[in-house]
Task: structure prediction
Amino acid sequence: MPLVSRWALRLAPVWGLVLLLLAWESAVAVAQIPRFLLPAPSRVVAKLAANPGYLAAQVGQTAIEAVVGLAIAIVVASILAVIITRSALLERVVYPYLVLIQVTPIVAVAPLLIIWLGSGTEPKIAIAALIAFFPIVVNVTAGLKSADGAALELMRSLAASERHTFGLVRIPYAMPFAFASLRIAAPVAVVGAIVGEMVGSDKGLGFVIIRAKGILDTELLFLGIFGSAVLGIGLFLAFVLLERYAMRSRRPTGTRPA
Result:
């Protein structure tokens, strides 16, 4: 494929966004839509330029809550996945409750966590961890169980310990599953943090969105939405890059990807 064509494909989303913004700006001007209903993109940018530090601080607050919550979810879910893999009985006992956690609306749980943990960052971190937990534990468990039967039999024939079996066979097979779950869990951790901020907080993107709604400041509301999207996409891309590095480092020296 020619170099120009490759760059055109890579930049297609950017050109799509530019066209969308131009259409949005034109529609607002031609239809004379009131600012409180739909502000033009230029007004949203002007709002950001007037006080960029404020939005950056709120994005940073939400990012801390989402990343810490995600880290807790990764640790707890990975440990539980290993335990479930080693015990079929425990899987039967625990799995229904994992499904229960997943199907319970996080908005319904958030006020309870606020009551228990207060109005600081702790409940937002807990909500982010809770919402990110399920996809990680399910996918990592599936990955650990997907290990090749012949490889497992070979490890047993060599009298390998369970630790070596996990390290040499099960974990390598589980890595694609784990990274797939992290690509899902990272953005939803941001959602969890924002939900917690909406329920009770005086800072963060959730607070920005609720405050903007209350005073009908749609320009600020769009900035809150935009900040949320950028943060979620940023975490998603971080794990995409981490997966590429991890998968590349697993290849034997001197080999090339097909």
In short: The CA atoms of residues 41 and 78 lie 43 Å apart.
